[in-house]
């Protein structure tokens, strides 16, 4: 249209850096970050992040360089989410449960120039450096992060590494770098490695900005929330809430470890209004002993995601007084991409029914454009009949830029103009989607698809079951049969036959487990069950039936 121009007056590249700059003015004296007895205001957090950015520049970091971090949810980890982008660099947060070998692989792949390492994780980083030093890879510079608020320990000072506060001391309060293009990378996030080796997902300032605002909105985060950090900040930048909390001038309550006692104590002490956690964290809270539980100080909104939440876990959390929001997404969608938007009409339904509705993955959030369930071959949308299974596909401004150094994987993921998630689901008549499985996890038994999520949901409803995961056990007759791995609640007893009969009473017989194994479930640190480990165990058991002889 004639008369339009684009200039800095009407176009500024979107970046979450602007959230911090605004909060430093609007909420300047309000608490930004709290950790034990340490507390900063938004003005202080802003100044510390500016100094961090300047310190990084002093160390030779240029725009586009990767800066890694290996740390739990401590204040430095929060500051890195702003300080690194403010230096024009790309933040690469590493999973704190990785071993030295994996850290060395990711450091080499990302070509990180600097790595910030929490003092407790120093041996892991040192092990990674040892491995790297035997290769041609250039070693990154290690910046040690000592315990916040405590003097540098002798171990830390004798390690000979530059230390976090000293780096800030070098930094100057000067103008920060904003991205030239809003599509410039802000973060390099490796996937959880649940199904294969972690992939390096490139996230942009623009995507991070939009996803953070969407996350604040669907979490019903009003102004100045108090957010308790249970979601690891290394996982999709804490599902984008690192930036979202700054947008709303909230208080970040950091905690090094996540357990039910610490969560209840912090909720009461700081009057927490919001937190998030994978279903396994909610399960831990829901099953916490009465000695640990405390009455909630007010409304506490909880966002869950990262793995399918069993309706029973949602139900139990709401019985305890928490208000749950269920979101779903991938590292490739900056964490949350959909949300099960709650409708007031559902409030009159029985609680169990409400939990089943909430366990659905829902609809795209405001920052994403579209989500569809398609036949992966024809790319036609499946009917909204809650039955026909297809692949979940995303399209919009909160989908990654691509996988680092893996054009083939990026092209495969974007084939057909959609991002293919590898998740299988159905669409309900009301438009809400529901996940049935990951394509790698679904069981095919006698030609029938079995959703392991559906079987697990029945197992979770058994009064003695604490956790459950179902995988396919190879079978000479059926191809595969469901094999359940079950962890019982403390003090509960149940045998395999009882569990199988319980499932057969509630599911078509072909879906009920044929095998039950009682043991602890292997988990990733992002709260997902490592089904490939269980699949290997089921495979080693061999077939139950002999060819052509089995009946259901
Ligand atoms: N609310 C949810 N309900 C069901 N599954 C979920 C939910 N949120 C996330 N997921 C699962 O988590 C996956 C995304 O996980 P993430 O990006 O952390 O890495 P990953 O896919 O586990 O790792 P990798 O791709 O390396 O195997 C989704 O594809 C989906 O299978």
UniProtKB/TrEMBL annotation:
Domain of life: Eukaryota
Ligase among keywords: yes
Pfam family, one: AMP-binding
Domain AMP-binding enzyme C-terminal: 454-528
Gene3D superfamilies: 3.30.300.30, N-terminal domain of ligase-like
Alphabetical UniProt keywords: Fatty acid metabolism, Ligase, Lipid metabolism
Molecular function via GO: ligase activity
Residues annotated as domain AMP-dependent synthetase/ligase: 20-404
Gene Ontology biological process terms from the UniProt entry: fatty acid metabolic process
Family: Belongs to the ATP-dependent AMP-binding enzyme family.
Protein name: Acyl-activating enzyme 1, peroxisomal
Organism: Citrus clementina
């Amino acid at each position: 249209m004639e008369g339009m121009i684009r200039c800095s007056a009407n176009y500024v590249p979107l970046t979450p850096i602007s959230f911090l700059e605004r909060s430093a003015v609007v909420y300047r004296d309000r608490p930004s970050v709290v950790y034990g007895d340490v507390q900063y205001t938004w003005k202080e957090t802003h100044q510390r992040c500016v100094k961090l950015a300047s310190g990084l520049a002093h160390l030779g970091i240029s725009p586009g360089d990767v800066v890694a971090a290996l740390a739990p949810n401590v204040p430095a980890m929060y500051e890195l989410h702003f300080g690194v982008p403010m230096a024009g660099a790309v933040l690469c947060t590493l999973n704190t449960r990785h071993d030295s070998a994996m850290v060395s692989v990711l450091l080499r792949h990302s070509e990180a120039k600097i790595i910030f390492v929490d003092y407790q994780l120093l041996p892991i980083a040192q092990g990674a450096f040892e491995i790297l030093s035997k290769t041609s890879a250039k070693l990154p510079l290690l910046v040690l992060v000592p315990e916040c608020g405590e003097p540098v320990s002798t171990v830390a000072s004798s390690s000979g590494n530059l230390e976090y506060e000293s780096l800030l001391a070098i930094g100057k309060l000067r103008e920060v770098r904003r991205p030239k293009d809003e599509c410039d990378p802000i973060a390099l996030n490796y996937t959880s490695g649940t199904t294969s080796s972690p992939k390096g997902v490139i996230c942009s300032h623009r995507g991070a900005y939009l996803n953070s605002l969407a996350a604040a909105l669907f979490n019903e985060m009003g102004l100045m929330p108090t957010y308790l950090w249970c979601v690891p900040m290394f996982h999709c930048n804490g599902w984008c809430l690192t930036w979202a909390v700054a947008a709303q001038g909230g208080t970040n309550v950091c905690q090094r470890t996540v357990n039910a006692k610490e969560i209840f104590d912090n909720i009461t002490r700081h009057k927490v209004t919001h937190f998030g956690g994978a279903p396994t964290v909610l399960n831990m809270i829901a099953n916490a002993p009465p000695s640990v539980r405390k009455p909630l100080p007010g409304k506490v909104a909880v966002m869950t995601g990262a793995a399918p939440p069993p309706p029973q876990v949602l139900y139990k959390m709401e019985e305890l007084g928490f208000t749950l929001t269920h979101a779903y997404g991938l590292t490739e969608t900056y964490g949350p991409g959909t949300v099960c938007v709650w409708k007031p009409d559902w409030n009159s339904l029985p609680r169990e029914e409400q939990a089943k509705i909430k366990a659905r993955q829902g609809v795209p959030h405001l920052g994403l454009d579209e989500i569809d369930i398609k036949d992966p071959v024809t790319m036609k949308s499946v009917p909204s009949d809650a039955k026909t299974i297809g692949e979940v596909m995303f399209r919009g401004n909160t989908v990654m830029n691509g996988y680092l150094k893996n054009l083939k994987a990026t092209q495969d993921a974007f084939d057909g103009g959609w991002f293919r998630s590898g998740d299988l689901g159905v669409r309900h008549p009301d438009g809400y989607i529901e996940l049935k499985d990951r394509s790698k996890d679904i069981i095919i038994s006698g030609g029938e698809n079995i959703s392991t999520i559906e079987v697990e949901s029945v197992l979770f409803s058994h009064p003695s079951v604490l956790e459950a995961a179902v995988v396919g056990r190879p079978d000479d007759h059926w191809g595969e049969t469901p094999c359940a791995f079950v962890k019982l609640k403390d003090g509960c007893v149940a045998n395999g036959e009882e569990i199988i009969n319980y499932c057969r009473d509630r599911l078509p017989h072909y879906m009920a487990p044929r095998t039950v194994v009682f043991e602890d479930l292997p988990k990733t640190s992002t709260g997902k069950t490592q089904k490939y480990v269980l699949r290997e165990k089921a495979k080693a058991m061999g077939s139950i039936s002999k060819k052509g002889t089995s009946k259901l």
